[in-house]
Specification:
This protein is mostly helical and 250 residues long. It has helices spanning 7-30, 39-52, 71-83, 87-113, 118-129, 132-138, 144-164, 167-183, 188-202, 211-249. The chain is flat, with a radius of gyration of 22 Å. The N and C termini lie far apart (85 Å).
Length: 250
């Protein structure tokens, strides 16, 4: 029966098997102590807690959340609100889900790239599964796993655009770039990659097609940076006034 399946179906089944093994790996890795928490993770978690408490984008030190984009703490706060988990559990379980998902997506992307040489895709998917450094990223509270998901979806949209030139693929590509930038500032690179994809597909004549989607999806990032810059200025001003008052009291 398995022999009657198409090459694509066989590889999908293979990827589901690898994703299942990956789920076991991440559960075993985090089962004893939970996900690891770095200083950056603590700021994201505390900011998510502040959002749930109605205090806005404020970290554990009471300062504005300015060094990172807003999506990750918003996502953790949203998951926590819906599930009643605390923000640490939300971050931990999110990575547990994303690890097998990203193994599957990465493997399928390799299959699309090496469609004529599927053995390369088979080996590449195994390398991803048994990558110790990759597993360590997912075993810690971090924004990278969801960023990787968005980046992979961006690549699928780019591949579809190059294949059939559909407008939906073009828009999806820049939607993923915009959301990825709200997850990590590094995502802004995807706007440039998207522009190159459009240039390769249509040439300079149709570069204007990317202007509207780029403007729409980069605007939230610009607004966030402006808002946080204003918050930082106000925060610094408050500290300067407080320091001057203390000096006068002394």
């Amino acid at each position: 029966m398995f022999n009657n399946l198409s090459k694509e179906t066989k590889f999908r089944v293979y990827l589901f098997l690898l994703a299942g093994i990956g789920l076991v790996f991440i559960l075993l890795t985090t089962s004893k102590y939970g996900a690891g928490v770095s200083s950056d993770a603590a700021r994201n978690l505390s900011t998510a807690d502040s959002l749930l408490a109605g205090k806005g984008f404020v970290d554990m030190l009471g300062g504005p959340f300015i060094l990172w984009p807003p999506l990750y703490p918003l996502l953790l706060a949203g998951i926590s609100l819906l599930t009643k988990w605390n923000t640490f559990q939300a971050a931990w379980y999110l990575n547990v889900v994303l690890y097998p998902v990203n193994i599957w997506l990465s493997g399928w992307l390799l299959f699309l790239i090496f469609k004529n040489k599927p053995a390369y895709a088979v080996i590449g998917a195994l390398v991803i599964l048994f990558s110790h450094s990759t597993l360590k990223i997912y075993a810690n509270v971090a924004s990278e796993p969801f960023f990787a998901t968005l980046m992979l979806l961006f690549f699928f949209a780019a591949a579809k655009l190059l294949t059939d030139g559909s407008d939906s693929a073009l828009w999806l590509m820049f939607v993923m770039a915009g959301i990825a930038t709200l997850q990590r500032y590094l995502g802004v690179v995807l706007f440039g990659v998207g522009g190159l994809v459009v240039l390769i597909k249509y040439g300079f004549v149709c570069v204007w097609r990317v202007i509207i989607p780029i403007v729409i999806w980069i605007l939230p990032v610009v607004i966030w940076i402006f808002f946080q810059t204003t918050q930082l200025a106000a925060h610094c001003l408050d500290h300067a006034i407080w320091a001057r008052c203390c000096h006068w009291r002394i």
